[in-house]
Specification:
Strand order of the largest sheet: 5-4-3-6-1-7-10-9
Number of strands: 10
Helix content: 10-25%
Radius of gyration: 16 Å
Largest sheet: 8 strands, mixed
Distance between the termini: 15 Å
């Protein structure tokens, strides 16, 4: 059985995964939704955060994370060069090279994302997490097997959309699970149809 590509991401009510300058602080990390998310999706917690809060990121859900450069670069000003050390980290960029000193566990590539993901899917392992951003999600839209959307009760007004621009091509997904939390966050899971 082939590995799945799962786009697991937080999104505002108006469809943005980050603000215009990469802001994501409006996505609250406090509330009843966090326990459920950390239990099932612990592999998506940054390694340094997981260690600080005792969250066990054990690779049972994901063993690989894919990011666009802007998603990866969010942590660089804070010295976070390997945010998900517990996962194989692949960063797609046509404009940026790897950091000056090669960061262990981070692979920066300018390869075609679709071709690369098809190769990853054919390998042994757990699911592959598409972390962001919107442009990479748009490029990989036809390869996404599952969407896990954490919808937060906030409006951004502008920012990085869930999917970047692409030609019109309707793709059907079926709802697998939907869960609402007292915090106002809803967690929806959708599987590609057919």
């Amino acid at each position: 059985m082939m590995r799945e590509l799962v786009y697991y991401v937080a999104v505002s009510l108006d469809g943005f995964i980050a603000g215009p300058n990469g802001e994501y602080d409006a996505f609250s990390v406090e509330g009843d939704h966090m326990t459920a998310i950390n239990e099932r999706y612990s592999d998506t917690v940054a390694t340094h955060v997981a260690e600080a809060f005792g969250v066990e990121a054990d690779g049972r859900m994901f063993d690989t994370v894919l990011m666009g450069w802007n998603t990866y670069a969010v942590g660089l000003p804070y010295g976070i060069t390997s945010p998900y050390r517990h996962l194989r980290q692949i960063v797609f960029s046509r404009e940026h090279a790897a950091p000056a000193e090669q960061v262990e566990g981070v692979e920066v590539t300018d390869r075609d994302p679709v071709e690369f993901v098809r190769e990853l899917k054919a390998e042994e392992g757990s699911s592959i997490w598409l972390c962001g951003g919107g442009a990479l999600a748009s490029a990989l839209a036809d390869e996404i097997d599952r969407l896990v959307i954490k919808r937060y009760p906030v409006l951004f007004g502008a920012g990085v959309p869930l999917f970047g621009p692409r030609e019109y091509a309707a793709r059907a997904f079926e709802a697998v699970e939907s869960r609402a939390f007292e915090s106002g966050v809803t967690l929806g899971e959708y599987a590609r149809r057919g």
